[in-house]
């Protein structure tokens, strides 16, 4: 890990990092917010600070949510750290959309492990986000016998748009092993196999075999995951979101959970007047923070 910059924010510090990834075979950037509790002398040495992973949407970098979602206030309030990964591998050697569009290629990795060339070499974003990055952060921050941050066990996940899709997908795929304690999403793409954004990404990264698509589609995954305990998924979406009807379609997830253990445990809150922007996201971050803090045992 290389520290690019450290910035004071709220009561803690935002650490901008880069590292060489074995999954993507590229250099990857990631932002980590360490809350005020991390720096408090009186914080119990045997108590690890839990983590929330925030996955960003199309065209974003780790900086978008770090600057505009205002998670830092909530992290200080409840005592959790934030991890903001990048949305794709980047660099001159990394294949991009030959058409130069913004919804595929660099900045639009869709958090899957690509199987198709020329993308398979670098676009291993599922393994990067859910396997490699937590281990890398744990090794970096918890070295020298001091383990103050929990990147491996007490972890929640959330995200926006493509990242909201990535959060729900990662949560469900890791559910049997309880990789994440809770999941929420802002304006997620819930059924990528049936909408243009997802179909383009899945065809490019995974090929034409739709059976492979189902392995990354929340509406397919949730039918085969047996819910346990009090687990639920929280979703917000604005009714003025320009992508609502064509790409997001949250009603498809509610349809998918009917007659499953998740029925009545996926909460979709459609909020009046809000669009797809960070004005929308930042407004409802406090509710999502409280939701995760409860599931992480901080409330």
TrEMBL record:
The active site is at 161 (charge relay system), 241 (charge relay system), 276 (charge relay system). One of its GO terms (molecular function) is S-formylglutathione hydrolase activity. One of its GO terms (biological process) is formaldehyde catabolic process. Its EC number is 3.1.2.12. The keyword Acyltransferase does not apply. One of its GO terms (cellular component) is cytosol. Pfam families: Esterase. Keywords: Cytoplasm, Hydrolase, Serine esterase. It catalyses: S-formylglutathione + H2O = formate + glutathione + H(+). It is found in: Cytoplasm. The keyword Cell wall biogenesis/degradation does not apply. InterPro entries: AB_hydrolase_fold (IPR029058), Esterase-like (IPR000801), S-formylglutathione_hydrol (IPR014186). It comes from the Eukaryota. Belongs to the esterase D family. Serine hydrolase involved in the detoxification of formaldehyde. This is S-formylglutathione hydrolase. It comes from Saccharomyces arboricola (strain H-6 / AS 2.3317 / CBS 10644).
């Amino acid at each position: 890990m290389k520290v690019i910059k450290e910035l004071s924010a709220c009561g803690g510090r935002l650490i901008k990092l880069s590292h060489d990834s074995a999954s993507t075979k590229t250099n990857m950037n990631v932002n980590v917010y360490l809350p005020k509790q991390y720096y408090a002398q009186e914080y119990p040495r045997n108590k690890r600070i839990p983590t929330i992973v925030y996955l960003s949407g199309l065209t974003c970098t780790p900086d978008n949510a770090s600057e505009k979602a205002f998670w830092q206030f909530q992290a200080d309030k409840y005592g959790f750290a934030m991890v903001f990964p990048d949305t794709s591998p980047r660099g001159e050697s990394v294949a991009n959309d030959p058409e130069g569009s913004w919804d595929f290629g660099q900045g639009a990795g869709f958090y899957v492990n690509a199987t198709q060339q020329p993308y398979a070499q670098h676009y291993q974003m599922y393994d990067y986000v859910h396997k490699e990055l937590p281990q890398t952060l744990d090794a970096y921050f918890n070295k020298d016998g001091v383990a103050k941050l929990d990147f491996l066990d007490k972890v929640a996940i959330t995200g926006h748009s493509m990242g909201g899709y990535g959060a729900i997908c990662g949560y469900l795929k890791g559910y049997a092993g309880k990789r994440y304690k809770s999941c929420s999403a802002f304006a997620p793409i819930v059924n990528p196999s049936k909408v243009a954004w997802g179909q383009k990404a899945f065809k490019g990264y995974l090929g034409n075999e739709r059976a492979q698509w189902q392995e990354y589609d929340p509406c397919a995954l949730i039918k085969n995951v047996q819910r346990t305990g009090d687990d639920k998924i929280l979703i917000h979406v604005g009714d003025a979101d320009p992508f609502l009807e064509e790409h997001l379609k949250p009603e498809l997830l509610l349809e998918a959970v009917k007659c499953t253990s998740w029925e009545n445990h996926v909460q979709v809150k459609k909020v009046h007047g809000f669009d797809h922007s960070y004005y929308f996201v930042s407004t409802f971050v406090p509710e999502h923070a409280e939701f995760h803090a409860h599931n992480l045992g901080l409330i």
